[in-house]
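Incident log, structure service

09:12 report received: a user says their structure output differs between two submissions of the same chain.
09:20 pulled the input from the user's history:
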Amino acid sequence: MRTKGLEITIVGDQFMRKEIVENIMRDRLKNFEIEIQTVEWELRNYQKQKIKGIMKEVKEFTGSPEQLIPYVSDTNILIVHVAPVTLEVMKAAKNLMIIGCLRANPVNVDVEAATSLRIPVLHTPGRNAVAVAEFVVGAIIAHIRKIIRASTLLRQGFWGYEFYYYNQAGYELSGKTIGIIGFGRVGREVASRAKAFGMDVLVYDPYVSPDLIEKFGYKPTTLEHLLAESDVVSIHCTLTEETYHLIGEKELEKMKSNAIIVNTARGGIIDENALVNALKNKTIGGAILDVFENEPLPPNNPFVELDNVTILPHIAGASKEVVYRASSMIAEDVKRILEGHKPLYCMNPQVISIE
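09:34 re-ran on a clean worker, output below:
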């Protein structure tokens, strides 16, 4: 690949700050002649709908391909966070050599189209694993110990004596069981923190060897057994056709009546109607939801009216360290490709010819 006079376009936003990405990219590529243009993208109005192109769909993006195209005509390396990179965009960028997506799963990039054009797509798996894991443990404690509810009532002028009553008091994590659904990077980070709190850890992941789960010090099990035995169920799998509504009415009925379920993965993994009914009927003890099938959450959503659910606006993966970590991962892999080495995190490594 050409290593001089490279034009890099960085499409940043209110979270993935373009100046941070640029500084890390300049530092990592200091031995190369580069020109960087930065674009400020809008993070709000996150779109769940899909764009179906000639190749494959893109989803979970903001803005439009038409907004991105004017910035890519001379671009060799395109770095995005949530901007949609479709086949149309790639064809407009006639000199495009590398696409970098600052996300674990580059669903806003048409990887199939990039592969057909022999353009490597870099991504950042595990970029927010620590952030999500810390968030999950914090949210569990805040929920079961009534921290958010008590604080909200206090601000409204109510002291909340009842939270000191036995029937209202929360429980300790030590000695309880947490069930982890999905043993990827995030699931493993959550498991390690739960174990540090003295919890027993059950793991369900049909794609991970039971021997590997045991090697980490946890107990592999079936979904049914996990649901029946866990005091806390935490979801950390990817949303696919197979995992869509993985947790429905039958699964919720298998849970303990005082157990809580936590979802920081994707809203579609839980059947929300079934969960609302379970919460209303006290089939389970409660829920912590950072993701929903429809985002932003409408103000008339039934979750808003329930006092046994903690609802949050999809912020589990948002820490300052995530921005630096993702930027460093992409910058390092761009450097590796330019130096003739295989990248560490590439969605389509078959397009890269390394002698």
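09:41 both user submissions now match this output. Likely a transient worker issue. Closing.
09:42 reviewer note: The domain at 6-127+319-351 is CATH 3.40.50.720 (Rossmann fold). The chain has two domains: 6-127+319-351, 129-311.
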